[in-house]
Amino acid sequence: MRVKDLKDCAEFISGDRAVLRELLNPLKEDLDLRYSLAWAKVLPGRTTRLHRLQASEVYYILEGRGEMHVDEEKRAVGPGQAVYVPPHSRQRIRNTGRSSLIFLCIVDPAWRPEDEEVLDIDPQA
Fold this sequence. Notes:
By secondary structure, the chain is mostly beta strands. The protein has one domain: Jelly Rolls. Helix content is 0%, strand content 46%. The protein has a 6-stranded antiparallel β-sheet with strand order 1-2-3-10-5-8, with no helix packed on it. A 3-stranded antiparallel β-sheet has the order 7-6-9, with no helix packed on it. The chain has a two-stranded antiparallel ribbon with strand order 4-11. Strand 1 and strand 2 form a beta hairpin. The N and C termini lie far apart (40 Å). The model has no long low-confidence stretch (mean pLDDT 95).
């Protein structure tokens, strides 16, 4: 059994400008997994950069409110909802609330920086 505390995971800014803490990634530690699991945060009023992954991704919203954009679709999202993002889809999420938008990201196969392509210039940099 492996147990990891979120507080022990280093925080970093991803290519899409979300704040991430990687909980599980079989490419970085000895785990018998195909997928990776990360905790993510988008601050109020912020939007992640438009990007796409070579892998499929699932967002599971824990706290806050947002608007998820996948290709030409957009939907309001909130706690308790899961969003499936097919491989190669253009995606971004906007925090529409007054508190941080917190969600889990599951990427299958496991996330690698070289598998993520940022598609726009960061207007919030």
